[in-house]
Specification:
Layout: E1 6-8, H1 9-13, H2 18-23, H3 39-51, E2 56-58, E3 65-66, E4 70-71
Antiparallel strand pairs: 1-2, 3-4
Amino acid sequence: MIRHLSVSVRGNLKKTDVQLWKDWEGCITDENGENPKSGLEVRKFFLNELAKGHEVVPSGNCDNFCFQKGCLGHMDE
């Protein structure tokens, strides 16, 4: 079984050091995969995800994703 990686929303919101947020710059983009977000925009992204009740977010495309548990798995082919 294959599982995609996910990112903890709460875990990343625990970061308070500005440098840690700068490390995230460019790692998250808009829905089209364009317009990389700044460190501050990434923090706002995580806050918005938490407000939606999302505990984790996918680190890539996943068609079997649960925002509470992460990727639920895919069969190997």
